[in-house]
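Note to self: the last two entries modelled the partners one at a time, which told us nothing about the interface. This time every component goes in together.
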Amino acid sequence: MKTLIQGLVAVALVNGGAAFAQDATRGEKLFNECAACHSPDRAAKDTVGPSLHGVVGRKAGEGTEFRYSPAMKRSGITWSSDTLNSFISDPQKLVPGNRMPYSGLPEAKDRADLIAYLQATMK
Ligand code: HEC
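The predicted structure of the combined assembly is written out below.
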């Protein structure tokens, strides 16, 4: 429930235009960190991980035909700028036991730009 409320607050912030300056072009370059395992392309199939096209707004573990871990399916998360920020910061902390072999992106600015890219290109 807490994550749901946090998600709604984040959506409200983005819709209100109150989010701080984010750079989706820089975010596209940062996506190279993820591209080894994730496609940003609508048409592309799942690779090592699920396609991230349209990830903002979808429920964790349900977006694609990917064989998600039970931990991801049970997480009850809806991906918003807020939940993505906390997941990318420390994937195992937000979803303990998930199977994404990635330790996290430590810089807040990097995460904000990456999420701006995910939002801008994947609707
Ligand atoms: C080494 C491979 C790898 C890298 C690098 C990686 N991921 Fe993942 N990712 C995965 C796998 C595998 C899963 C599925 C995890 C599960 O089911 O537990 C996943 C799941 C996810 C999900 C949940 C998707 C959904 O449909 O619920 C998101 C969001 C995500 N990754 C974002 C990212 C972002 C953003 C980056 C770059 C900062 C990244 N990942 C880097 C392998 C990777």
